[in-house]
């Protein structure tokens, strides 16, 4: 099933300049809470190539999550230049940003962020629904993904009926649903016991071997070691 | 288009709110709708009854009382009384254009009427035969009003007010029976139907009797009219008709047609207009009260939707991260608010229709207060107006919470400490 062709009618499908999926230049982010201004990012340069597995490490409060939000178009930078597959992101409208998140980004969170009222199946289906995929194709795609993360038998369970590791696998299936350009994971094993964490790590490795581009924020040295490349953030700057 | 489908799809999937709160909110809307509809229906019923009452006397009339001149005219002094005669009615009918009937009346307020059953002192009116039509003196079944032959032959025929008829004949049918009028025998030809009256002059119609104007002249030896009644074909031209009467009678009785004092005129067209304006005011007032009650319900819906948005903040943030456009978030919320409002509204409409049908079964005839209030009535305009108010309140009660949802910052919501 060639999902790239299915979902990305308007995407160019190829990497932009220098083959980079992500290209950031002098990105800054200042949180203005009224009283105080927090300079979370102070000039980040970052490039992630197609098929890379990058780990982002750094102490708590250094700006890792902020960086991920900017890459994922959940937030906009205060300054600097950000291109996703060569396409300028700043200046896009809310609908266009939503579409980018839907088609090009797959998020994995530390606390899973599954919707508790609906089944695993429906959680994975959600991005496909936003992407306007037909019911038949949604069904096929969700089934395929649930098999991929080894949860075909838990498809119709609610998240509360699953273990932490299983929940994170559902979340990964959801992140993969629209076959995004990149998977962004913010401390994906932070809430898991060691053995579940190892499971998730090997799942990521499998995905990477199959060609998925990955950017993972982690505190886990084991995970950082498996990555092709490690980027360390300190005080809002790449170290 | 696809956006709308997406919104409907998502709306169908959105978990609906907390049962108990939803039920209470729907009940509040139903109550508000009921209040609005009842208010408007009572207003409408009152309007109909007032209108009917004002029409009871006859519509588009000018009633003109002769008085004295107040202006010097062609060397004649002011202060001269003007008293048109019976023959002037024919003159006016010929010379005034655009009338739908002209009649004259003569009144005698203290006439003794006597039958075997009882004696009454009542007002007796001498009038031309078309008075029945002009002044809405509709006979009960089995009787008739005075006719042209009665007038020409100066017959001693009499038409009775319905209450007067009861005083003189009890429960029996008076038609064809005799009444002694100042000791002279008259034959009853008809009794007026029961009417709800709002405006009046010269006493209640239910309590007076009418005889042919010619007979009146013979009986009482007078031929000066107490007043002239003009009915306009077109209510908008009533003033012009009154001026024509001034001109015709002015040249005969030598007074200035512009002299305002010669006739005091009561114009029922103006009265009808006043009634209409007053009713519009009352209905507006009732409508606003009803709409405010409904608004309270709307605030309830908005509140429940605010709570829903607050509860689903994380869910909304997740959906945004997964690529939901803002309108796919807000659309289902607006629809949900609208759905509560419309369900409540529908319940309210059903209750209102049922209640009004029940009220309709209560007899009002004979009870003055209920009669004046009229029957609460729903009209197409009430329906359209209430639907519009409901729709607007429904949309607003969803719109504001939806706006708050759209303002949710996904990055902020999904932050994990
Ligand atoms: N929404 C926000 N408003 C204000 N300050 C923020 C906000 N988000 C993050 N920060 C601040 O920005 C800095 C970087 O935070 P974050 O990116 O979450 O760090 P990390 O993920 O590396 O722990 C911290 O000092 C944090 O307090
Ligand atoms: Mg963080």
From TrEMBL, chain B:
<dbReference type="InterPro" id="IPR050250">
    <property type="entry name" value="Macrolide_Exporter_MacB"/>
</dbReference>
<feature type="domain" description="MacB-like periplasmic core">
    <location>
        <begin position="23"/>
        <end position="246"/>
    </location>
</feature>
<feature type="transmembrane region" description="Helical">
    <location>
        <begin position="284"/>
        <end position="309"/>
    </location>
</feature>
<feature type="domain" description="ABC3 transporter permease C-terminal">
    <location>
        <begin position="288"/>
        <end position="409"/>
    </location>
</feature>
<comment type="similarity">
    <text>Belongs to the ABC-4 integral membrane protein family.</text>
</comment>
<keyword id="KW-0812">Transmembrane</keyword>
<dbReference type="InterPro" id="IPR025857">
    <property type="entry name" value="MacB_PCD"/>
</dbReference>
<feature type="transmembrane region" description="Helical">
    <location>
        <begin position="378"/>
        <end position="400"/>
    </location>
</feature>
<keyword id="KW-1133">Transmembrane helix</keyword>
<feature type="transmembrane region" description="Helical">
    <location>
        <begin position="329"/>
        <end position="358"/>
    </location>
</feature>
<dbReference type="Pfam" id="PF02687">
    <property type="entry name" value="FtsX"/>
</dbReference>
<dbReference type="GO" id="GO:0022857">
    <property type="term" value="F:transmembrane transporter activity"/>
</dbReference>
<keyword id="KW-1003">Cell membrane</keyword>
<protein>
    <submittedName>
        <fullName>ABC transporter permease</fullName>
    </submittedName>
</protein>
<dbReference type="InterPro" id="IPR003838">
    <property type="entry name" value="ABC3_permease_C"/>
</dbReference>
<feature type="transmembrane region" description="Helical">
    <location>
        <begin position="21"/>
        <end position="42"/>
    </location>
</feature>
<dbReference type="GO" id="GO:0005886">
    <property type="term" value="C:plasma membrane"/>
</dbReference>
<dbReference type="Pfam" id="PF12704">
    <property type="entry name" value="MacB_PCD"/>
</dbReference>
<keyword id="KW-0472">Membrane</keyword>
């Amino acid at each position: 099933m060639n999902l790239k062709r299915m979902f990305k009618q308007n995407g160019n499908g190829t990497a932009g300049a220098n083959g980079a999926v992500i290209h950031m230049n002098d990105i800054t982010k200042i949180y203005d809470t009224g009283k105080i201004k927090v300079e979370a990012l102070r000039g980040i340069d970052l490039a992630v190539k197609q098929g890379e597995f990058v780990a982002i490490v750094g102490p708590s409060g250094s700006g890792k999550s902020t960086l991920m939000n900017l890459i994922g178009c959940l937030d906009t930078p205060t300054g600097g230049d950000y291109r996703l597959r060569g396409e300028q992101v700043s200046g896009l409208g809310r609908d266009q940003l939503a579409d980018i998140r839907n088609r090009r980004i797959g998020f994995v969170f530390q606390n899973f962020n599954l919707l508790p009222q609906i089944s695993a199946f429906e959680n994975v289906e959600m991005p496909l629904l936003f992407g306007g995929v037909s019911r038949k194709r949604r069904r096929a795609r969700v089934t395929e993904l649930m098999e991929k993360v080894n949860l075909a038998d838990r498809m119709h369970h609610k998240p509360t009926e699953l273990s932490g590791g299983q929940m994170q696998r559902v979340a990964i299936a959801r992140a993969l649903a629209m076959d995004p350009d990149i998977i962004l994971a913010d401390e994906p094993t932070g809430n898991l016991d060691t053995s579940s964490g190892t499971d998730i790590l090997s799942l990521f490795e499998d995905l990477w071997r199959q060609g998925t581009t990955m950017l993972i924020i982690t505190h886990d040295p084991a995970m950082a070691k498996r990555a092709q490349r490690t980027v360390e953030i300190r005080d809002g700057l790449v170290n | 288009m696809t956006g709308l489908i997406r919104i409907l799809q998502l709306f169908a999937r959105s978990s609906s709110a907390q049962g108990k709160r939803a039920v209470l909110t729907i009940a509040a809307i139903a109550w508000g709708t009921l209040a609005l509809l009842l208010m408007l229906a009572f207003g409408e019923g009152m309007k109909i009854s007032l209108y009917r009452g004002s029409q009871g006397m006859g519509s588009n009339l000018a009633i003109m009382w002769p008085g004295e001149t107040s202006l010097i005219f062609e060397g004649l002094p002011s202060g001269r009384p003007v008293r048109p005669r019976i023959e002037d009615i024919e003159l006016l009918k010929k010379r005034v254009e655009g009338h739908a009937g002209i009649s004259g009346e003569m009144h005698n307020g203290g006439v003794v009427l006597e039958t075997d059953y009882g004696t009454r002192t009542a007002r007796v009116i001498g009038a031309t035969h078309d008075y029945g039509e002009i002044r809405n003196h509709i006979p009960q079944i089995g009787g008739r009003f005075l006719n042209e032959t009665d007038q020409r032959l100066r017959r001693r025929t009499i038409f009775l007010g319905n209450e007067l008829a009861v005083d003189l004949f009890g429960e029996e049918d008076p038609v064809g029976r005799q009444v002694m009028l100042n000791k002279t025998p008259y034959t009853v030809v008809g009794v007026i139907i029961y009417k709800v009256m709002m405006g009046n002059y010269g006493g209640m119609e239910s309590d007076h009797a009418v005889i042919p104007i010619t007979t009146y002249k013979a009986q009482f030896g007078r031929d000066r009219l107490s007043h002239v009644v003009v009915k306009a074909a077109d209510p908008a031209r009533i003033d012009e008709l009154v001026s024509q009467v001034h001109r015709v009678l002015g040249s005969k009785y030598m007074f200035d047609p512009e002299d305002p004092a010669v006739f005091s005129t009561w114009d029922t067209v103006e009265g009808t207009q006043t009634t209409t304006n007053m009713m519009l005011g009352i209905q507006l007032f009732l409508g606003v009260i009803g709409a405010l009650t409904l608004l309270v319900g709307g605030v309830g819906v908005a509140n429940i939707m605010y709570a829903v948005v607050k509860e689903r903040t994380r869910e909304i943030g997740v959906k945004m991260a997964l690529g939901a456009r803002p309108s796919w978030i807000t659309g289902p919320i607006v629809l949900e608010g609208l759905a509560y409002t419309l369900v409540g509204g529908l319940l309210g409409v059903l209750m209102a229709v049922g209640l009004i049908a029940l009220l309709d079964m209560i007899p009002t005839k004979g009870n003055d207060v209920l009669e004046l209030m009229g029957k609460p009535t729903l009209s197409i305009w009430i329906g359209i107006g209430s639907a519009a108010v409901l729709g607007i309140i429904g949309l607003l009660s969803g719109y504001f919470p939806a706006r708050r949802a759209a303002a949710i910052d996904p990055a902020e919501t999904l932050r994990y400490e």
